[in-house]
Amino acid sequence: MELPLAHASQIPLIAYLLVGSVLFVTGITCMIAKRNLIGILIGIELILNAGTVNLVAMSSPFVAGSGLPALDGQVFALFVILLAAAEAAAALAIALTYYGGYATIDVDHGDRLNG
Amino acid sequence: MEYLIVLIPMMPLAAVFVTALLGPRVLRSNSHVPTVTAAAVAFVASLALLLMVYWATAASEKPFATTVQLWNWADLRQPELEGQVAAPDAGPLDLARFHVPVTLRVDPLTAVMQVTVTCISLLVSIYSIGYMHDDPGYWRYFTYISLFIFSMTMLVSVSNFALLYVFWEAVGLCSYLLIGFWYHKPEAAAAGKKAFLVNRVGDFGFALGLFLLWSSYGTLNFHDSVHPQTGELISAGILGGVRTAAGGQGYLHGGVAMAIALLLFVGACGKSAQFPLHVWLPDAMEGPTPVSALIHAATMVTAGVYMVARCMPLFDAAPGALLVVGCIGGFTALLAAFIALTQNDLKRILAYSTISQLGYMFLGLSVGGLAGAVAGMFHLFTHAFFKALLFLGAGSVMHAMGGVIDLQRIGGLRRRLPWTYATFLVGCLALAGVFPLAGFFSKDEILGVLYQQEGGGVYRLLFYAGLAGALMTAFYTFRAFFLAFHGEELVPAEAGRHAHESPPVMLLPLVILAVASLVVGAIFGPTGWFESFLSKTPGLAAVAEAGSHAAPHAGHDGHTWVVAWSTVAAVLGIALAAILYLGPGGLLRGVATAARSVGVYTLSYRKVFIDELYALAVVRPLRGLAIVAAWFDRYVIDCLVDLVGLLPKAIGALLRDVQTGFIPWYASAMMLGLLTLLAALVLF
Amino acid sequence: MIPELVLGMGAVACFCLGAFPTVRRASQLVAWFAVLFAGAVVGVQTGWWHGHAVSEPWYAAFGNLFRWMGLGLGLVLLASMRPGASERHEAESLGCLLSAILGLMLVGGAADLITLFLGLELISVASYILLYLDRDGPRPEEAAGKYFYLSILSSAVFLYGLSYLYGLGGALRLDRLTHAWASGAGTLGDASLGAMAAVLVLAGLAFKITAVPFHFYAPDVYQGTSHVNASLLSVLPKAAGMAAIIKLLLGIMVGGGLPLWQVTLAVAVLTVTVGNVIALWQTHLRRLLAYSSIAHAGFMLIGLTAAMTYRRPHQHPWDGAGALLFYLVAYVIATAGAFAALSVLRRGNRPVERLDDLRGLARSNATAPRFIAWSLAAFMFSLAGIPPLAGFWGKLAVFFSALDVGASPSENPLRSRLLWLAVIGAVNAAIGAAYYLRVVGAMFFTEDDAQDRQQAAVVATPAVVAVFACLVLTLAIGLSPGSWFQAAHSASPTAVPTIVEVSLDTAPATH
Predict the structure, then answer these.
(1) CA dihedral B351, B356, B359, B363 (to 10 degrees)
(2) How far is the C-alpha of B62 from the C-alpha of B540, rounded, in Å?
(3) Would you call C330 an interface residue with chain B, using a CB distance cutoff of 8 Å?
(4) What is the pTM of this model?
(5) H-helix or E-strand containing B100?
(6) In Å, how far from its chain's centre is CA C162?
(7) For residue A40, is it within any domain?
(8) A49 to chain C: which residues are within 8 Å by CB?
(9) Is residue A113 part of a domain?
(10) Is residue C351 within a helix (H) or strand (E), and if so which, with residue range?
C-alpha cells in the first residue's frame, strides 16, 4: 500500500513523520551525549515517543493522507505508553542500585566489566 | 558376513562401556580384560571376514562389495521421495535426497584394513597389560584404547563421507585423550592440544572437500543405493562402480575435481602428518609408548592413506592433484628422514621415521590408478607390523630403563634385553628394507611403480627422492639400533634394579610382530595376492577399468634394476651407520653380530671396510644438513603452523580493545552500526 | 491461548505471593505447577500422545516450536534457580522468569506487531528486574545498568522501525503486511523508507540476538550477573529475537525486493568472526560463553542469509530458516545445559566462575562433579560442532543451506558470496573449537593444584536433573536428527501465521 506523504488542505503526514524523526535523533543524541542516568532516561523517552508519534499519525483519520482506516496503530501507541511507564519505573530502581554501587549516577564509572 | 562387519566395531564399543562403568570400582587391575577380549574377538572376526571376502572374490571376476545399513541417521528426504527413482536430468544438486545412512561396507580394502587394525590393536593391548600395569589410570587407559579401536574399525568400514568425517574426528579425539594421558606432565597436555589443533586445520580442509563433493555430486555415499524391490538405481554413490561401469554421469574433471582432491588431501595431510602439518606427530610421543605404536604409527595416522586409496577414483580424475600428493609425500619422506638422522630420542627418531614412511605411502599413491593404490596400501600394511614392533621394542627399552630413552644415556643393551634386541633388529631390518623382510617388498613396490610411471620427469625425480630416502632410512634406523644396543653398556640411574628384560606379556607381542615382519612381505608381495585381492574393490576396479593408467603392473621392465638399487641403498645406509657408530673396531663386531642374528649371510671383512675418509666426507655434510633441517622444522615450520593458530588470537586482541565497558561508547557504536547498515542498504 | 494464560496467571500469582511473607515459599510450587501444566496443555494440543492435534487454528507449527522451547527452558531455569540465594526476592524472581517464558511463547506465536513487540518487551522488562534483584554476581549493579540502558535503546529503535513497517504496510497483522510488502509497499514512494524500516528493525533485533555491532553488552552483563541470569539472557532473548527476525525480515520485508541478504551477510560474517576471535582470550567462564553466544548468533545468521535468497523456499530441503531453527534448538539446549551445570558447582561459598575454578573437575572423588564435568564437556563439544552431538548437525545444516544457494547453477554474484560465507563459517567453526577445548582441557587435563581453595562441590540437586535432561537431548538430537530436522523444516514456513477469520454468528463478517 502506498504511503501518501502530502495532502493539500490539512497538516500532511510528512510533517508528523518529520517531528517523529527529530524526536528520534534528539533522543539518540541525548542518550549518547549525556553522562547522567536520568538524562539518558529522558533520551529514551524521546525515542519511544518518536515511535508513538509515528504510530498515531499513520493511523489517525484526522491526518491528511494517512489513508489507514483502522485505529490499530493508536492501540499500539497506548501499549507503548504503558510500556514506557513500566520501563521508567525499572530505570529509576536501577539508577538507585547503581548509586548504591558507585555513589554516583554518572555512567562513565561503570566500566569495571570490560575486555 | 553382515554380522561380522557389525560385530567387529561393536565388541570394542561394548568394552568401552564395560570398562568405563566397572573399571574404577570392580575391575581395577583387571580393566584390560574387556578390551583384550573385544580386540581378540574383533581380530578373529576380521580374519573370518577376510577369508569370506577372499572366497567371494576368488569365485568371480567382478568387484565385490556388500553393505549393511544399521539405521538412517539423518534423513532429510521428503517422505514422498522415499524409494523414488532419480530423474535422469536431476541436477547435481538433488538436495531433497540428503540422508546419512549408517552403512557399513565389506569389500577387499575394508577387509585388509580391518585385519591390520584389529591385529595391531590386539597385540598392543596385550602389551599394555605389562607396560601400564601399575599406572593409576589403568582403567581409563583401556577405556580410551577401546574407544579408539571402535572408532578406527568404524572409520575403515563406513560407507559414507559424512560418517567418515565423524569417525575421523573420533579417532582424533581418542588420540588427543591418549597423548594427554599423563596430563600432569605439561608437555603431554600441550602435545595433546597441539595434535588436536593441527588436526583441525586438516579437518577444515576435509570438511570443505566434503562440501564441494556434496555440491558437485549431490551425495556423500560411497555406495549406490538400489531400490530394494525393483533393483533400480535410486542414487549413485560417489565411489560406487556404477558411474563408470554403467556409463553413468562419470567423474567431474578439471578444476572442480582438482579442488575436491586437494581439499581431501589437506585432510589426509593433517591426519597422516604430512608436510607442513606434520609438526604434531613428534610431540605426540609424549603419550604412553603403546599408544604411539598403535595410534601414531600403525593405525590412526594411516587413515589419510586409507582415505586417499579409498577415494582413488576422485584423485584419478585429477592428475594434477596426484602430482601434488607425490611432491608433498616425497618432500615429507626426505625431510623427516633428514631430521631423524640426528635425533637422540629413540621415540622421536621413530616418529620422524613414521612421518617419512607415510610420505612413502603417499608417494606410492601418487602414481594413481590401481597400481598406486596397491603400492600405498601394501606399504601401509607391512609398515603397520614393523613400525608397531619398533615402537613396542622402544617401549620395552623404556620400561627397563626407567623411562629414559635418550640414546646418549643408554647403550649396549643387547645382553640385558636379548629378546628386545633380537626383535628390534628384525624391525630395523624390515624398516631399512632388507631382503626378504616386509619393508623390502613394499618399498620396492612403491619405487617400482614410481619408476614405471610415465607422467614425465617429476615422477623420475620422485623415484630418486624415494631412493635417497631409503638410504637415509637405513642409516638412521641402524644408528639408533647401534647406539641403543651395541657399544659400551650404559644404564641410566633411573633404571634402578628394573634394568632387566620385560615380562612375557610384553615379549609375546614383540615376537609375534617380529615373525609377521619377517613373513608378510614375502607372502603377499611377490605372489600378487595383495594386488589381485584389492583390485576387486569397486572404486579401484573402476579406475583400473577406466585404464587411464593402463600400465600393466606385473612383469614391468627394469624391475631388477629397482630392486638392485634399493638393496644397495639399504646396505649402504646400514654400513655407514656401522662405520660411524661402531667405529672401525666395532664395525666388524657389529656387522658380524647383525649378520649372524639374521643368519642369512656372512660378510667378509674387507668388503665392508669402506674408507673412513670417504665416510666423513659424505656423512659429515649430511649431518650438518640434517641439523639444519631439524632446526628448520622445529623453528620455522612449527612456528608457521603455530602462527596460523595465533592469527585469530591476534585479531581477537585487537578487537578486544573495542570492548571498553563504557555505556556511551557502546551506544554510539551501536548507532554507528545502524547508520552504516542503512547507508549500505540505501546506497548499494 | 491456554498455555499462555496459565503462565500469565502463574506469574501474577507469584508476584502476589511475594507480598505475603508467610506464604511466599509457595511461589516455588506455583511456578513449577504453572510450567508443567502449560506443558501438559501444549502436549494435548499438539497431539503428543494420541496422534492428532487439537491446537487452535491460529497456532501454527512455528508457534508450537517456540512454546516447547520456552517451556523446556523454563523448566531448566527453574531448576537452576538456587533456593536461598536470593531468599527475599524468590517469589519476584520466579514471577519474572514465568513472564519471560511467556514473552518467548508470545513472540513465537505472534500474528501481529503488538503481540510481537509486547512479547519481546516482556522478556526485556523481566530480565531487567531479574538483573536488578540479583545479588549473586560480582557487579550486579553495573550489569543491570548496562543491560537496561542499552536494551531499552534498542527496543526504542525497534519500535521506531516497527512504526514505519506498520505505516508502509498499512496493517498490524503480519499476514497482511507480508501481502502488502510483496506487492511493493516497501519500495513505493521513496525506497529509502523501506530500507529504513528494515534496518531499524534489524538493528533492534540484532541487539536481542547479540549480533555485531550490537553485541557489546553481552560479555559485560553476563560476567556481572549470576549463572542463571546469564543463562536466561543467552537463550530467551536470542530465541525470541530469532523468531522475530524470521517473522519480520524473512516473512515480510524480503518480499519488498530490498537486497537485505547483503546486510545480513555482512552482519553474519562480522558476528561470527568477532565472537570467536575475542572468545579465544577469555578466562572468565560467563564472559567466554557470552562471546560464544555471539558467535552462534553469527552462525544462525548464515542460515538467515541463505533463506533470504530463496525465491521458492519449499524447494529447498536445506531451507535456511529451517536450518536456523534447528541450530537455535541445538544452541539453546547446549547453552542452557552448560549454564545449569556451572550453576550447580560451588567452591566453598563461591560460585565457579573462572576457567581455573574448573581445574581437575573430571577427577573429583565424588560422582556428581564428575558427571557435571562430562556433561559440560558434551555441551562444549556440541557448541563446537563435534559429531555426533546436536551442534554438529546445526552447523552442517547452516553451512549446507548456504552451499545450497552457493552451488546452484547460476551466474548470480550472490552465488560466490554465499560459497564464501559457508567457507568463512567453516573457518570459524575450526577457530571456535579451540576455546571450547580449553574448557574441556581445564576439567580433564589439569590438576586441582591450589591447596588453599576448596574442592568443587555440587549443590542443588534439581539442576543436576536439568543438566541430565539437556545432556540426553543433546545426544538424542545428535544421534537421530531426522525428526528434528523435519520439525524445523515444517515450522519455518509457518512463521507468519495466516489468520483464519471466524465469524461468531451467521452475519457476514464486517471487514
Answers:
(1) -150
(2) 12
(3) no
(4) 0.83
(5) strand B99-106
(6) 21
(7) yes
(8) none
(9) no
(10) strand C350-351
The secondary element (H helix, E strand) that includes residue B67 is strand B66-75
Residue C338 contacts B, CB cutoff 8 Å: no
- Mean pLDDT computed over A64-79: 74
Q: Which residue's C-alpha cell is 509457518?
A: C494
| Residue A35 structural domain | 12-106
**Position A78 in a domain:** yes
B415 touches chain C (CB under 8 A): no
- C436 vs C441: CA distance, rounded Å: 9
Place of cell 583401556: B142
Q: Identify whether A87 is part of a domain.
A: yes
DSSP class of residue C112 equals B
Question: Contact, B351 vs B292, CB < 8 A?
Answer: yes
Note whether C157 contacts A: Cβ–Cβ < 8 A.
yes
- CB-based contact, C141 to chain A, within 8 Å: yes
> Distance, in angstroms, between B647 CA and closest chain A CA?
18
pLDDT tens-digit readout, B586-601: 555 565 556 555 543 3
Give the residue from chain A lying closest to C225, CA to CA. A113
pLDDT in tens, C346-373: 887 778 888 888 887 877 777 888 888 8
Q: Does A39 touch chain C (CB under 8 A)?
A: no
C-alpha span between C221 and C233 (Å, rounded): 9
Q: Kindly determine whether residue C162 and residue A24, on different chains, have CB atoms separated by under 8 Å.
A: no
Q: The CATH number of the domain where A101 resides is what?
A: 1.10.287.3510
CA nearest neighbour of C325 among C237, C246, C236: C246
What single-letter DSSP state applies at residue C331? H
Residue of A nearest to B671 (CA): A28
- Please give the tally of structural domains in chain A: 1
What single-letter DSSP state applies at residue B678?
Answer: H
Give the integer Cα–Cα distance in Å for B19 and B221: 33
The closest alpha carbon to C432, from C287, C257, C288, belongs to C288
CA atoms within 13 A on the CB side of B178: 30
Contacts of B95 in chain C (CB under 8 A): 316-318, 400, 404
- Which residues are CB-neighbours of B207 under 8 A, at least 6 positions away? B165, B267, C426, C429
Mean pLDDT for C439-467 is 75
In single-letter form, the type of residue at position B458 comes to: V
